[in-house]
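Worked example 3 (structure in, sequence out).
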C-alpha cells in the first residue's frame, strides 16, 4: 500500500492529518547472512495501533541484491498527525527466495521509533542502531522524512551515454544512472535508478516516468545530482562520474538535446592536464505532463459499476445452522455480510444508480464493450476457500487485465489461502500459458486479518474496506493512462434557477377567490 492512517482511531471521527510525509530508508553495515555473496536486503515498515498496540505491516521496499549498505528507492508515504504518537518499526530481512512469507527469510535486525522522532530530528534525518539478534552488531538504519508537495506534474525522461570510461578488465562497462534530489542541509536523497545496459560505453537507457514531486519535491530549481556507475555482480559497483542539473534546466531541453559532462572528482583532482571528462550523458527527451487523479475522472463523469459474487458452495455449511458462514444471527452480521457491506457502502458512492447487479457474465460483457473510459467495473468475490480451477482462473484474470476492470477477492472463514495470494500481482505479475497480465487488477485479503478482537464490527469493516480498496485508484489510473483516456469535461458550476416571474393578473385572480 502507499499510504494509510496509522492507528485504530475511529475512521469516522479521526483527525485530519497535518500533512503527508515521505520516508526514505538506507542501511549501513548490515549482517552478512549469505555464504557465497552478501545479503539481499529488504525493509518492511510496521505501524502500531493506538488502542490495541497491534503491529501491522504498512509496506515494503524493493529488494537490493548483494549489498550490506542499501539505499532503498521505494518510499513510504504516511499521514502525519502532530497530536498523535505514531509508533513505527523497521524490520530488515535478507531475501533468499521469492516467497512473501517473511518467516522464510533471514532476519537482519529491527529498529523502533516514532514518526515525530524522525520529523523532529536535525534535518529530519534519524539514525538508529538495528537490534534483535543477541550478541550481534546488526548495523544501522537511516530514515529521512520530507513533506510531500502538492505538485501534480510528472516527466518522461530518456538519457544516453557517450564514450563513458571503461571499467571492466575483460570487456566494456555495464553502466546505469542513479538520480538524487538535494535537501536543505546539503545532503542528497536517492529518487531513481535506471536499468543496467550491459557491455557498452555508449548506452541508451529506456525512457522512464517520474513524478516531479519525487525528483525535486516541486522545487524546479533544486539541484539534482546524477551519478554514473559500472554495474558489478558482487554489488561493488564502480563509480564512473557524475553531473548536476535541475528540473527547470531539463524542462527547457524539450526542443533540443542537452549534453552533460560526466566528471570524476578524483581524476579531476589529480590535475592531469589531459583529463577532460569520463564521457558524456545526453538528455534525449523531456516530456512534461500533469498527473491526472482518480477524482479528475470521477468528476468528469466516469461511473464505477459494482458486481458481487458470493460463494454458496456446500463447504460453507447449512445456512440455518450457527456453524455456517452464511448463518444470519439476530445479534450480529456474519463475515460475508460484513465484507459485502464494508466494500459496498463505499463503492456505491461512485455508482449513480446504486444498483448492484449480480450476473457476472453480463458484467464481463459490459466491460468488454465499454472501453472509452466512461465506465469502470469492480468485481467483488467473497469465498470461504481456495479456488480449485486455478489455471482457468488465471487465464480469466489475464484476459480481464486489458479491460476497465478490477477484482477484489475476500477470503472468509478459517481456511488457508496461500494459493489465492498467487492471484494478487503485487510482487509478481500473474501469467497463464506464457501470457502475462497487462496490469495488476487483483487484490486479495483474508477477512480474519482485519477483524477487531474487541468485537467492534464497524472498525472491522472500516479496516477491510481500507485495505481492499487501497489499490483501486491506481489500477483505475493505469488503465486510463495506458490507453490515453482523459477525463471528461467538468460539469458547469451549479447556478440556482431564478424564481419564475409572477403574472400579476393571476395574482389578482387568486386573491379574489
Amino acid at each position: 500500500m502507499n499510504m494509510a492512517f496509522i492507528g485504530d482511531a475511529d475512521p469516522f471521527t479521526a483527525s485530519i492529518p497535518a500533512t503527508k510525509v515521505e520516508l526514505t530508508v538506507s542501511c549501513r553495515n548490515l549482517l552478512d547472512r549469505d555464504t557465497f555473496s552478501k545479503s539481499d536486503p529488504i525493509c518492511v515498515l510496521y505501524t502500531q495501533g493506538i488502542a490495541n498496540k497491534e503491529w501491522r505491516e504498512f509496506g515494503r521496499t524493493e529488494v537490493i541484491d548483494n549489498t550490506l549498505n542499501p539505499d532503498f528507492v521505494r518510499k513510504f508515504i504516511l499521514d502525519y498527525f502532530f497530536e498523535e504518537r505514531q509508533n513505527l518499526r523497521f524490520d530488515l530481512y535478507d531475501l533468499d527466495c521469492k516467497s512473501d512469507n517473511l518467516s522464510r527469510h533471514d532476519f537482519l535486525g529491527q529498529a523502533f521509533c516514532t514518526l515525530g522522532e524522525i520529523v523532529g530530528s536535525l534535518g529530519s534525518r534519524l539514525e538508529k542502531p538495528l537490534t534483535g539478534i543477541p550478541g550481534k552488531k546488526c548495523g544501522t538504519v537511516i530514515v529521512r522524512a520530507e513533506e510531500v508537495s502538492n505538485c501534480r506534474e510528472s516527466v518522461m525522461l530518456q538519457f544516453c551515454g557517450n564514450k563513458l570510461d571503461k571499467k571492466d578488465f575483460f570487456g566494456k562497462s555495464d553502466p546505469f544512472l542513479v538520480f538524487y534530489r538535494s535537501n536543505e542541509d546539503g545532503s542528497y536523497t536517492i529518487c531513481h535508478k535506471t536499468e543496467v545496459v550491459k557491455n557498452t560505453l555508449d548506452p541508451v537507457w529506456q525512457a522512464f516516468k517520474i513524478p516531479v514531486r519525487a525528483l525535486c519535491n516541486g522545487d524546479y530549481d533544486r539541484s539534482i545530482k546524477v551519478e554514473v556507475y559500472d554495474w558489478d555482480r558482487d554489488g561493488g559497483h564502480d563509480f564512473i562520474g557524475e553531473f548536476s542539473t535541475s528540473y527547470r534546466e531539463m524542462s527547457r531541453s524539450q526542443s533540443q538535446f542537452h549534453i552533460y559532462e560526466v566528471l570524476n572528482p578524483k581524476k579531476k583532482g589529480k590535475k592531469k592536464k589531459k583529463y577532460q571528462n569520463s564521457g558524456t550523458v545526453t538528455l534525449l527527451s523531456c516530456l512534461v505532463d500533469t498527473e491526472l487523479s482518480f477524482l479528475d475522472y470521477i468528476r468528469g463523469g466516469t461511473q464505477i459499476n459494482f458486481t458481487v459474487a458470493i460463494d454458496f458452495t456446500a463447504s460453507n455449511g447449512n445456512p440455518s445452522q450457527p456453524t455456517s458462514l452464511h448463518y444470519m444471527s439476530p445479534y450480529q452480521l456474519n463475515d460475508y455480510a460484513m465484507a459485502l457491506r464494508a466494500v459496498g457502502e463505499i463503492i456505491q458512492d461512485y455508482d449513480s444508480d446504486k444498483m448492484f447487479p449480480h450476473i457476472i457474465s453480463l458484467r464481463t460483457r459490459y466491460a468488454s464493450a465499454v472501453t472509452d473510459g466512461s465506465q469502470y467495473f469492480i468485481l467483488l468475490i467473497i469465498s470461504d476457500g481456495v479456488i480449485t480451477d486455478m489455471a482457468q482462473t488465471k487465464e480469466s484474470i489475464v484476459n480481464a487485465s486489458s479491460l476497465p476492470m478490477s477484482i477484489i477477492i475476500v477470503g472468509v472463514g478459517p481456511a488457508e489461502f496461500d494459493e489465492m495470494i498467487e492471484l494478487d500481482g503485487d510482487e509478481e505479475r500473474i501469467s497463464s500459458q506464457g501470457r502475462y497480465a497487462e496490469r495488476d487488477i487483483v487484490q486479495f485479503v483474508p477477512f480474519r486479518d482485519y477483524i477487531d478482537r474487541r468485537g467492534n464490527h464497524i472498525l472491522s469493516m472500516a479496516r477491510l474496506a481500507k485495505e481492499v480498496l487501497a489499490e483501486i485508484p491506481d489500477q483505475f489510473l493505469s488503465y486510463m493512462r495506458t490507453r490515453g483516456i482523459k477525463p471528461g469535461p467538468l460539469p458547469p458550476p451549479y447556478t440556482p434557477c431564478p424564481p419564475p416571474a409572477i403574472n400579476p393578473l393571476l395574482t389578482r385572480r387568486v386573491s379574489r377567490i
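Notes: The chain has three domains: 19-147, 153-290, 294-482. The two ends are 70 Å apart (CA to CA).
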